[in-house]
Amino acid sequence: MFANLIEFVTNHYVLAGTFVVLLVLLIVTEMRKGGQSLSTRELTALVNSDQGVVLDVRSQKDFSAGHIVDSLHIPYEKVNARIAELEKHKAKTIIIVDAMGQQAGSIARELKKAGFTAAKLSGGIATWRGDNLPLVK
Predict the structure, then answer these.
(1) Regarding the domain with residue range 35-130, which homologous superfamily does it belong to in the CATH classification?
(2) Whole-angstrom Cα distance, residue 121 to residue 54?
(3) Of 19, 72, 99, 123, which is least packed with CB atoms within 10 Å of its CB?
């Protein structure tokens, strides 16, 4: 199978090269789109040093079931309308947390446009739970 791949690449080097370039462009675009991703350790360090604040954008039901200590809660669909509530935290990094890291990137991008320093928790609350870190109800 590997020999077939090598044969294909050597016979169709323009096609293979185009594929590699497009793949790299896709990866770069996706990485830029959502802003900086933080690990659970980086999130904890920012919050503990009073340089970050957690913004949970999950639904009220999910937030009530368990959230990171002292996190703010604004549901995903209401963040743009309620962005003024975050003004008092403008000097800190706003760390967006969602269920699995899928929506946080677009919120981080919107907050950056509004002049905030924003990042997202890589993998969302699922990563937090996976690392056995505490949640409050």
Answers:
(1) Rhodanese-like domain (3.40.250.10)
(2) 9
(3) 19
Instruction: Tell me the residue type at 97.
Output: V
CB 105 within 8 A of CB 34: yes
Q: What's the pLDDT band for 37 if we cut at 50, 70, 90? A: confident
Q: 59: burial class by Cβ within 10 Å (0-12, 13-18, 19+)?
A: middle
Q: Which amino acid is at 45?
A: A
Own/partner pairs, 49-52, CB within 8 angstroms, 24+ separation: 50/92, 51/92, 51/93, 52/92, 52/93, 52/94, 52/95, 52/119
Sheet holding 93-97, edge to edge: 36-38, 117-121, 93-97, 52-56, 72-73
Interval 109-121 mean pLDDT: 89
Measured distance CA(28)–CA(81) in Å, rounded: 30
DSSP symbol at 132: T
Task: Show me where the domains of the chain are located.
Answer: 2-32, 35-130
Residues 6+ apart with CB under 8 A from 28: none
